[in-house]
Each structure stands twice: as C-alpha cells, then as structure tokens.
Amino acid sequence: MLLSVGWLSASVAGVVCAHLLQRICFPYFWKDLFFLLKVMRYGVNLEVSKLRSEVRTVLDKFIHQAQRIPNKPFVIFEGKAFTYRDVEQRSNKIAHILLQNTNLRKGDCVAVLMNNEPDFLCVWFALAKIGCSVAFLNTNIKSRSLRHCFTSCGARTLVVGSDVADLLDGFLTTVLEDNIQVWAMKSSFEHSQVHTILDKIDAASDKPVPALPLTTNIKTPTLYIFTSGTTGLPKAAVISHLQSLKAAGGFWAFGGTQDDIIYIPLPLYHSAASLIGIGGTIELGATCVLKKKFSASQFWADCRKYNVTIFQYIGELCRYLCNQPKTELDKVHKVRMGVGNGLRQDVWRDFHHRFGNIKMCEVYGSTEGNLCFMNHIGKIGTVGRSNFIYKLLFKYDLVKYDMVRDEPEKDNRGFCKRVKHGETGLLLSKVSALSPFFGYAGSKQLTEKKILRDVFVKGDAYVNTGDLMAEDQEGFICFRDRVGDTFRWKGENVATTEVTEILGLVDFIQEVNVYGVEVPGHEGRAGMAAVIVRADHSFDGEKLFDCVVRDLPAYARPLFIRLQEVMEMTSTFKQQKFHLVKSGFNPANISVPLHVIDYKLESYIPLTDTIYQRILTGERKL
After folding, report:
1. Which end of the chain is more exposed for a tag (fewer CB within 10 A), N or C?
2. Rounded distance, CA 360 to CA 372, Å?
3. Buried b vs exposed e over 238-268: b needs ≥16 C-beta within 10 Å?
4. How confident is the model at residue 280 (pLDDT cuts 50, 70, 90)?
5. What is the rounded distance in angstroms from the CA atom of residue 486 to the CA atom of residue 472?
C-alpha cells in the first residue's frame, strides 16, 4: 500500500515537474503543436486529393457554398448585400455572355483591370468557369507597364471595370492594334471596338455553364498576379490551384469561423485580398465586407455598422488608423482579429492600446514564394513562428549577406554561410516537391534569376526571397530589411530598375541610381534617386516632375532627388546603394544638392532644413 502511494505521489510530482519544465523551457509547445496539427491536416487533405486526382478548387468550393448556403450574404459592398446565390448566378450570366460572343476556350488567359467591386468577383469566377486563367492587373500602373503585362502572360482579351475606363486613354489604340479584344463592364462605350457586358446581362442565362472536366492537376496555373522585381517591369507570378487553396486556409488556421464578418479594404488585384481574403471567406462560408478603397476615417464606422470581426491589413493601414483623432468609440467594436503583414512594433503597441487587445496575426510570404510564416502566437514585432517540426516540413535558411557587395557571403568552397540565432541573414527557401516554386510567366530567365543554386551543396536550389530576417532562440522570426532592387512604399513594391528606366528617358539625366530611404513615422521606404546631370544640361525640376507623374504610379515616384557628380560602384561593377541608403535625405548631413517633389508647384524643389523638419513632424505629407 505504501509502495502504491509512493509510486502515485512520485508520478504526480513527475507530471507536475514536467509541466513546469515545459512551461519554462517550451512555453509555446502546446500552441505550436495544435496549430501545426491543424495546418498539417489541411495540407494532408490537399495531398490526398492530389493523389486521387480529385482536386476541389477554390471555385469548386464557392459553387458548393452557393448550393449549401445560397441566401447567406457573401459580399457586402457600399451597404448592399450580395448572397452566394447572387454572385453565382451573375457569374454564370457573364460566363454565358463571353462564351456566346468570344472565342474564349479552356486554357486561354484573360486580363482583368478592375477596382474593388462585386463584379470583380463575378468576372473572375465567370472566366474560371469557362476554364480560363485570369491575370489581375494593378489599376495604378501606366500604359507602358500594362502592355508589358499582356505580353508576359499571353492574354488576348481584357475586361475593364466601368470606373477604370479612363486608364485606357492613350493605351486603347495600342491594345486594339495588338488584336486584343476589350470588354467593359458598362452598358455602352464611346469606342465602337470596345464590347460591353452590362447591356447583355439581363437577357443572359443564369444557369450553370457546361461543366468542365474536373481539375486533376493541383499545380495547374489558375491566376497571374503581378509583382515588382529586379527586372524592372512587373512580373506575372504564376498562381496554381495549390497556392490558391493554401492561401484560402489562412483565416481558418488562425481560428476563423463561418460566423465571422471579414473586412477587406485591400485591392483585389493583390494576393492578400484575393487569395487570402476572398478565398478565405469562401473556405469558411463566411461574409466579407468589400471596401472599394481603404479610408482611415470610415474604417471603424464600417466595422461597427457591419459587425466586423476580422479585418485584413498592411502595416501602413494600421499606422493611418492610429494617426486618426481619438474618440470615445475607439474600443467600441466587435473586431477580434487582424490578418496581414508589415506591422511595426511601435504601431502594433499603439494599435493595441488605442483599439483594444485585437489579435494581430502576421503572415509572411511573397505572391510567388514557396514559403510562408504565420505568427499564430501574436507576439509583437514578429512575422512568424518556427520550430523543429516546421523545419522538418519546410526547409529554409538564413545566410550571411554582404550589404556593401550586395550579395551573399561565401566560404572558401564557394558555399553560403549560415547565420547564428539572433543574427540577421538573407532568407532562402529550398525548392522541393513539398515546396515547389512556380515562378513567373514568360521568359524562364525571370524565374531562374530568383533561384540560387549550389547554396550549401552541389545541386541544391533555393528561392532568394530578397528579405533580411532574424530568428531568435525561441523560434520567432523578425523582418529586418529588403535587399536588392526592390523596396516597399505605401503598401506596394517598387522596382528600382523600372523607375531608373523612366528617369533615364529625361534628356538632362546622364545616370540614375534609385533606392529607398527610411522616413520616421512611415512604413517601408520612400523613393529617392541619385542623379548625374549631363555636362551640357542643367537640372529641371518641372520637366522631371512631368515625366514621373506621366509614366509612374504615385507610390513609385521618387520623392527625393540627390544630385551627384559621380556614382559609387561595388567591386562587381553594380551601382552602390548601401551608403546612399544609410545617408538618408537630411540636407544637414549631405553636401550635395537635394530636391523634394512638390505637387502644388508641380516640380522638384530644393530640400531645405525647414522642409526636412516639416516632413519629420508630419506637417508636410508624403
């Protein structure tokens, strides 16, 4: 009896000690385990469907939801609710119109140039029902980049929204000359060669279109989403059914349910809103509130009006919300979770203090990437969480990076060198059967430039994310900086080579080096260009202003100009950006002339100490 009591006491003590040890040494063990099991279950289901050749795509899931919950609101837009049945039937109508009036067939690519509205979804789903892949075009890009987008993804048909028809000015003639058929979501259009959809929609059938054969290959491309990169012009990232389905599970993985109301203020032409936002809403069978354009002043009023429980964000969006005047209603809402990326630590803390303890779920991953980190713990300042189980499934490494030479450091055998815990390194993600890299449409060189080979051993291949990260002893991952020829501003990626090409067209500019500089109180980096003026010319701020406004979207325009006599080069004969980035835009610390963009004067004007201080205090908006 005494032995039994002693054994029981020892067992209880052992369990208690083990529990205390786990709480002290592995405080996130159970949260990590349950989250990974959930994500792995989702992944296993995808793998099983792939093996059985029974792939249920995001479109298949939407059609299923339209049959299961036809009367439930799917999208709320500008106060009007559109049920799952409404969107299903309207997308059927558009599909019938296109089938009857075009030669579109399964496998064709169609470009969509539309702002946020329910018809964006109806057109997207209609084209998917026909069997077409869809290219989402950024409504901010200019005509030169738009033409390139068609070439890269092979689209021969364009569908435009009614409110973006003005973007076709100066571009429509070129498109039509290239034998690209244009359809507008309007009842009439002044150009006779542009076809219209809305005048045909009442008479169109809302019955399902002829059923396509089931998708058997989960890796088949379904979307092209354009992203800026080192090649300058936008690149068409190939989005397969596999990537779409993985993204659609994001809200569910973080604890979303069918009862959630999801607020989507981000543009649908980006993967966050379309793949995670719309795809996630469909996966849950939930309702989303689609905003045409983000408004800081209307955000919380919308959340209260529609009983929003989850919202999507980028870091800049949260900063705008924190900068709004405080009110007594700041914490009066039902929002429990935010899902997004790029949230700075200071803004994160301010956001919690101001609007309540909302769980902010950071997600790290590029549109075309093969790796995703998810901060399911909610630790402030981290973009994701990793552990030994995750590393068994997804192979990634942080390697030492030479900021001056702008390349990974190599050992004496020519292989990359891993960093230690806590050190900053370049994030590389291994290409494997479990983590394939689909790359970009068009030239194979675009995809190959994103891959590093022979990284640790001969024959291996890793995707170069272009991001500097750090991982601490507990497995939390922090974003540090971007490298190479891309930086982020106003929630958009800016390709420095594209900006360089545009500035190089100005007659008085001999050489340009474009980079991003940090501005206190702002997310990302503001565009700056170091410029050498030709010997027989002088700097003309008005001419440069006209060029950038005409040919570049607002987020890509250089805000600051630095006049140089010479350009510093790296040892590999690339333009040196590191020292320029570090020196910033403070005129007190820079001996060469600086200029700043001025929209009122429609010119680049000298950057004085007074203007610099007004930028720092926020009096002068950027």
Report:
1. N
2. 16
3. bbbbbbbbbbbbbbbbbebeeebbbbbbbbb
4. very high
5. 26
Per-residue confidence (pLDDT) for residue 230, from 0 to 100:
44
- Band (574; pLDDT cuts 50, 70, 90): low
Q: Tell which residue, 374, 474, 373, has the closest CA to residue 422.
A: 474
Residue ranges of the alpha helices (H) in 202-278?
241-248, 250-253, 271
Work out the average pLDDT over 271-300.
96
CB 94 within 8 A of CB 197: yes
Task: Look at the pTM and tell me if it is higher than 0.85.
Answer: no
- Provide the CATH topology of domain 486-617: GMP Synthetase; Chain A, domain 3 (3.30.300)
Tokens of 171: 């571009």
List, in order, residues 6 or more apart from 185 with CB less than 8 Å away. 114, 119, 123, 159, 160, 161, 162, 197, 198
Report whether 99 contacts 209 (CB < 8 A). yes
Instruction: Check residue 72 and give its pLDDT.
Output: 98
Task: State the Cα–Cα distance between residues 123 and 284, nearest whole angstrom.
Answer: 22
Structural domain spans, the chain: 50-293, 380-482, 486-617
Span 11-30, average pLDDT:
54
Q: Which two tokens stand for residue 480?
A: 């540090």
Give the pair of three-digit tokens for residue 93.
């109508």
Output phi, psi for 585, to 5 deg: -135, 25
At 535 the pLDDT is 87
Phi-psi region of 567 (alpha: psi -120 to 50; beta: other; left: phi over 0): beta
Q: To which residue do tokens 């469909």 refer?
A: 282
3-class DSSP assignment, residue 482: strand
pLDDT (average), residues 164-175: 71
Of the candidates 484, 489, 490, the residue with the CA atom closest to the CA atom of residue 452: 484
The Cα–Cα gap between 556 and 65 comes to 40
Query: 523 pLDDT band (50/70/90 cuts)?
Result: confident
d(CA 52, CA 40): 18
Which tokens sit at 360? Answer: 């902010």
pLDDT, position 260: 98
DSSP state of 436: -
Residue with tokens 């890009």: 141
d(C-alpha 59, C-alpha 102), whole Å: 22
Four-way CATH pick for 50-293: 3.40.50.2300, 1.10.10.10, 3.40.50.12780, 3.40.1190.10: 3.40.50.12780
pLDDT of residue 352: 94
Helix (H, G, I), strand (E, B) or coil at 557: coil
- DSSP letters along 280-319, please? HHHHHT-EEEE-SS--TTTHHHHHHHHT--EEEEEHHHHH
DSSP one-letter string for 98-133: HHHHS---TT-EEEEE--SSHHHHHHHHHHHHHT-E
User: What are the CA-CA distances from residue 371 to residues 277, 301, 426, 439, 584 (Å)?
Assistant: 19, 36, 14, 13, 32
pLDDT class of 312 with cuts at 50, 70, 90:
very high
Q: Which CATH code of 3.30.70.100, 2.30.38.10, 3.30.70.330, 3.40.50.300 fits the domain covering 380-482?
A: 2.30.38.10
Judged by phi (left if over 0) then psi (alpha if -120 to 50, else beta), residue 193 lies in alpha
Q: What is the pLDDT of residues 130-161, one digit of tens each?
A: 999 999 998 887 767 777 888 888 899 999 99
For position 18, what pLDDT does the model report? 47
